[in-house]
């Protein structure tokens, strides 16, 4: 039995709430159980200097954790400097979103995604990717609705979920209690059509087998399919 009482292929309660940031062109408060992340999307009519004149745009992301998002207060990164972990996660978010955006259709402009972890209980990066897509789609729909662009450049959805080998068994959507003790920890980023964008998998002890990896991938596909359905429902 998992500490939460969930079955091995059961996700935590998932919530995707749009329109939570009044001033942002797109926003989403995403909750994976007790992990809560505020994601906002900002429309910017400029493009990065290194992209000027190329006829395409950019999507980038920033990620951070608030000081009391964890059990003990951490130093605010604005003062202490951004951690390597935060840099790695924000790059993951940016890559994940760019995989489902037609950057030429976006034109010479960019969308800036901010993901701020309000409360952490494992899986902050996967929740951030999932909520960031909702904020991105919200932003692009705003741009079409206001006549800024003619068509939505987002070509597919993308979401992410964690999986792991916990007490010798594969499990979906790890919370902190499981993530901190897992024998294998993995994160999967998958599009709505089932395409794989990124896989991060690490053995914390004994190496994992081909069969165990296949089981984790199967769980991730099942989890992300459910997340894609929830993302779609957020706009209905």
From TrEMBL:
Q: Which residues bind phosphate?
A: 85, 123-125
Query: What is the main EC category here?
Result: transferase
State whether keyword Nucleotidyltransferase applies. Answer: yes
Signal sequence extent = none
Q: Which family does it belong to?
A: Belongs to the RNase PH family.
Q: How does it assemble?
A: Homohexameric ring arranged as a trimer of dimers.
What protein name is recorded for this chain?
Answer: Ribonuclease PH
């Amino acid at each position: 039995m998992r500490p939460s009482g969930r079955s091995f292929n059961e996700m935590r309660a998932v919530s995707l709430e749009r329109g939570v940031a009044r001033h942002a062109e797109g926003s989403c408060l995403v909750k994976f159980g007790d992990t809560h992340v505020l994601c906002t999307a900002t429309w910017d009519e400029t493009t990065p200097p290194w992209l000027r004149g190329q006829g395409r745009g950019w999507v980038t992301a920033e990620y951070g954790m608030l000081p009391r998002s964890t059990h003990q207060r951490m130093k605010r990164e604005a003062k202490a400097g951004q951690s390597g972990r935060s840099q790695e996660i924000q790059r993951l978010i940016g890559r994940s979103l760019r995989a489902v955006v037609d950057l030429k259709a976006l034109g010479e402009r960019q969308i800036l995604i901010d993901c701020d972890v309000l409360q952490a209980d494992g899986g902050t990066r996967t929740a951030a990717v999932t909520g960031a897509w909702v904020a991105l789609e919200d932003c692009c729909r705003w741009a079409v609705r206001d006549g800024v662009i003619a068509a939505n450049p987002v070509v597919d959805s993308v979401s992410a979920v964690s999986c792991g080998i916990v007490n010798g068994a594969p499990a979906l959507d790890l919370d902190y209690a499981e993530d901190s003790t897992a024998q294998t920890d993995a994160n999967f980023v998958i599009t709505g059509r089932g395409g794989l964008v990124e896989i991060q998998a690490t053995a914390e002890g004994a190496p994992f087998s081909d069969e165990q990896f296949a089981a984790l991938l199967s769980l991730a596909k099942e989890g992300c399919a459910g997340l894609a359905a929830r993302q779609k429902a957020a706009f209905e």
